[in-house]
Each structure stands twice: as C-alpha cells, then as structure tokens.
C-alpha cells in the first residue's frame, strides 16, 4: 500500500475549505488510488469549526483518508507537507487601503512560507488561493529560500474555467471542444483571458467568435468580474467553483496535462513573454512527469500584448508595495 500524501489546507473552516476537503478526501486532488492525510490549519477561533468539519469527514468513511490533524500552529501544519493549499487569507474590509491589505496578508504568508521552508517534504507543491493570490504566493516563496521557487504557484484556474464556460456558451460548443485557452497575468480584474491562441475544434477561438466587440466588452469583463457577479447573485463569494479549480490545478500539476492542450497557472516567471523574472504571473503551461513548463514560441498580437502588459504592471506594483512594506 502507498504511503499517504500529506495535504495541508489553511483556512480549512472557511467556505472554500468546506467545499474542498471532501473532494480531497475522496481522491479527486491526486487520484483515485492515492491515500491522503489531511492537516487543517486555522486561526484559534476557528479551530472548533474545523473540528466539526473533521467530524463530517470521519462520517464519510472515505477509504483514501488515512487521518486528519487540526492545528493553529503553522510549523505543525506544514511538517512533512507534500501538497499545501493556502486558502486562508485576510479579506479586504471596508475602508481598508491596499497597503493595509498587503500588510495583513504579509502577516499570514510570511510565517507560513517560513514554516514550509522549515518542515516541508522535498517534493512539496504549494498552491495559493487566498487573495491577493499572486502576491501572497510571492511573499510565502520569498520566505522559503530552501524550497525551489517554482514550487510556489497561485490560482488562476477558476478564471480559466470561467473563460472556457463563457466561450462554450457563446459558440454553442462543449467545453471539451476548446483547447489552449490562457489566462495571463494577475488573478484580479486586470487578468487577460486570451482567445487569440485558444482553439475551438481546431479553429482560432477569436476567429470562431468573429466579434471583437463581444470579446472586449462582454467576454473579458464577464470573466474578470465573475467573482463580483457571484457575490451579487449568491450573497456569498464563489466557494465550490474555487475549490473545484484548486482541485484541477493540483491534479494537473501532479498527473500532467492532456496532449495538445495546456492550462493556466500563476507561476514564477522565467522572463518568458516579457514578464519580469520572479513575478508570479499566469501563463499557459503544460505538465509532464510532475513538472510544469511555460508554453514557448507563441506569437503575441498587439491587442493581447497591451492587456498582458497592463496586468503584469499591476503585479509589479504589488511586488514593489510589499517590498516597500518590508514583507519581502
Ligand atoms: P472564508 O472567509 O470563508 O474562509 C477563510 C478562512 O481562513 C477562515 O476560516 C479563517 O478563519 C481562515 N484564516 C484566516 N487567517 C488564517 C491563517 N492565518 N491561518 C489559517 N487560516 C486562516 O473565505 P473563503 O470564501 O473560503 O475564501 C478564502 C480565500 O480565497 C479568500 O482570500 C478569497 O478572496 C480567495 N479566493 C480566491 C480565488 C481565486 O481564484 N484565486 C477565488 C475564490 C476566492 O475568492
């Protein structure tokens, strides 16, 4: 029998945590034959709620779930971790300036990065979901100098999946007919969902759409502002779809991407496509043998170039702001 994989989830008592944990325990994160051991990290006030979720996990009698530990101590939570899902973050509250938001999150992601550095397994993979995800990932990574930088990633897969679904609806096709879609840049309103390199049944997606006004004025804003639309409709932020995207991100990172397709992941830039080295920015990536690489050699048209540059400029600003605050 296989040794269980240690999966740590932070913010485990939150709403994404609630949607995520049951799918991890039922084998969707890593595969149907991979046993998992869950570590739940919460703040002290939410430990009891996490214990309640753990009771429900017990009550599912998942064959692959070999144990659950709950803690409010980051060092304990990340000791021996193989997959770290950093979901818990400090949300922006009314009247909060960007500097306050970044500082509050620095107070979370700096110690978590240090704890990962101290105790993680050699093969650790980190996915940051908590916003501002790209910059939180950068903070954690900068405090984990002994972990290869590329193991720190942030989630743009929800944006990717949202874009797939919007495009499929527009063209009356199935999401499986669409390949090579990319989210570029920051997981924020400046992100660029790219249809010029995407394909629909072999045809360039932007050409299949053949409606630049829809692309610019409907598609891009709908994908970029979908989070706000969900809050408006549901009265709560996206949770199950975010958990689903986290599952997709890690599953593909571990098990590989499909031949002839790619996925979107925010990863440390190696300078590809003019994105400054080290920034955690979303790219088209393929995965083979558990290692991702940025799809190379794509020609970037002028319209796309301007959109990518704008989102990357925002990431540079965020990085400079956390630098100025002494967080990295
Ligand atoms: P909730 O507020 O429901 O849950 C967050 C949980 O994190 C709470 O239980 C809280 O106690 C815990 N927490 C706070 N600080 C912590 C710390 N230092 N250590 C451990 N746990 C801590 O939020 P939820 O709806 O679950 O969303 C979580 C995060 O995901 C938010 O930052 C949200 O903005 C972000 N999202 C990111 C998305 C993405 O695509 N990258 C999409 C969905 C979501 O908006």
TrEMBL record:
Domain annotation Lactate/malate dehydrogenase C-terminal: ranges: 156-323
Record keywords, A-Z: NAD, Oxidoreductase, Tricarboxylic acid cycle
Domain of life: Bacteria
Record keyword NAD present: yes
Catalyzed chemical reaction(s): (S)-malate + NAD(+) = oxaloacetate + NADH + H(+)
SUPFAM superfamilies: LDH C-terminal domain-like (SSF56327), NAD(P)-binding Rossmann-fold domains (SSF51735)
Chain ranges of the Lactate/malate dehydrogenase N-terminal domain: 6-147
InterPro entries: L-lactate/malate_DH, Lactate/malate_DH_C, Lactate/malate_DH_N, Lactate_DH/Glyco_Ohase_4_C, Malate_DH_AS, Malate_DH_type2, NAD(P)-bd_dom_sf
Gene3D superfamilies linked: Lactate dehydrogenase/glycoside hydrolase, family 4, C-terminal (3.90.110.10), NAD(P)-binding Rossmann-like Domain (3.40.50.720)
UniProt: NAD(+) binding residues: 11-17, 105, 112, 129-131
Signal peptide annotation: none
Entry's EC annotation: 1.1.1.37
Positions of the catalytic residues: 187
GO function term, MF aspect, one: L-malate dehydrogenase (NAD+) activity
HAMAP family, A to Z: Malate_dehydrog_2
Record's function text: Catalyzes the reversible oxidation of malate to oxaloacetate.
Family recorded in the similarity comment: Belongs to the LDH/MDH superfamily. MDH type 2 family.
Protein name as annotated: Malate dehydrogenase
Phylogenetic placement of the source organism: Bacteria, Bacillati, Actinomycetota, Actinomycetes, Pseudonocardiales
Gene expressing this chain: mdh
